[in-house]
Design a protein that fits this description.
Blueprint (H helix, E strand, L loop, with lengths): L11 E6 L1 H5 L12 H4 L2 H4 L2 H6 L1 H16 L5 H8 L5 E6 L5 H5 L4 E3 L2 E8 L6 E3 L17 E5 L9 H9 L3 E5 L21 E4 L12 E4 L3 H12 L3
Parallel strand pairs: 1-2, 1-7, 2-3, 7-8, 8-9
Antiparallel strand pairs: 4-5, 4-6
Length: about 240
Amino acid sequence: MFLINYKSMKKNLIVLSGAGMSQESGIPTFRDMGGIWEQYDVMEVASPQAWAKNPQLVLNFYNQRRKKLLESSPNRGHEIIAELEADFNVIIVTQNVDDLHERAGSSNILHLHGELRKVRSTSYPHLVYELSGWELKLGDLCEKGSQLRPHIVWFGESVDNIGKAQQIVETADILVVVGTSLNVYPAAGLVHYAPVKTPIFVVDPSKPSIVSNNKTVFITEKATTGLEKLKDMLKSL
């Protein structure tokens, strides 16, 4: 969940996080060399067409992702973002489907692309459930009798939370982009919604080519070490 606290005396620090945020926790990225999409055809495991054609293959794919997640732990980068809540009104907009931000202690998180540890009804999308354990099976049904599917935004499906994400970024006093190249839309367009004078900090070893302003600071390091540096920088703001 997320909450924009307009009455807070703290500055709004908005974090846009992506796959590089969780890579140091052992969660493989999707598009980097050696990433998940080098091993799978995306349209065979992460699309409505794939679900209609071979739901068991889709379930197996996400069950393995979920099992890996349960074996992983938040890294220091996740912990630093949670610690920043002591001094800022931190809201995270993440492209990640893992729950490592939550497990690190962050309290204000909006997931753009769904949540791996949740499932939902195929016929009644508003029926969303926490999954106990890692395995979802054919025959696991919602309360109204329809098959449950991963609570994930598949390729070709709408990103329903993008409007909420835009509203959040519009409130930013400070914007932090970490672990994402922001090459994939609609998430890539979120930086455009930050107020013109908002300082932007980009933490990523590859220095992604994002739209920036004269207050943009690039910290070309991985999430854990880069966020340690960012934490020190924020003390002067």
